[in-house]
Amino acid sequence: MTARADLALVLEAARFAAEKHRMQRRKDADASPYINHPLALANILVSEGDVDDPEVLVAALLHDTVEDTDTTVEELERAFGSRVAGIVAEVTDDKSLAKEERKRLQVARAAHKSNAAKLVKLADKISNLRDIATSPPADWPLQRREDYFHWAKQVVDALRGANPRLEAAFDRAYSDGLASMRGAA
Fold this sequence. Notes:
Blueprint: H1 3-20, H2 36-48, H3 54-62, H4 65-68, H5 73-80, H6 82-91, H7 99-110, H8 115-134, H9 142-159, H10 164-184
Helix pairs in contact: 1-3, 2-3, 2-8, 3-6, 3-8, 5-6, 6-8, 7-9, 8-9, 8-10, 9-10
């Protein structure tokens, strides 16, 4: 693909994700627009992970569409290609399973993901930790936030080796976030 085609694909993914998530909000007290989260992932990948693979950036923008909207993997494959659809499928939890089982499987399967899926998952965990530390879900007490941090670290520890810069960013978000939450308690 040309640079122009790559850029067009990334922008189309941002438009598609914005449309699919248009009625969704984050769980923070301000009920931020959900699209801020996939945009944050793409920004983390480029700005902090030095990731320039357009299909990884597209997958980051689309990473929650199958899990949290009526989007199917087949729809993503038609619109964005099999590699993007495959990456999204790798990072999508099976919502038919109980929450604790989904969390267990994220840890168990992390090491076996493709490198592209590991990058998206790393950016997702970095973004989530930062959001929980600075504007947590309104109904999450300190213990639940800390539990999320410790579980996210288990997932990321199994992803290590994919991108040292993103792993370092996660480690900073983890330690700074815990210190911030505990200091505010």
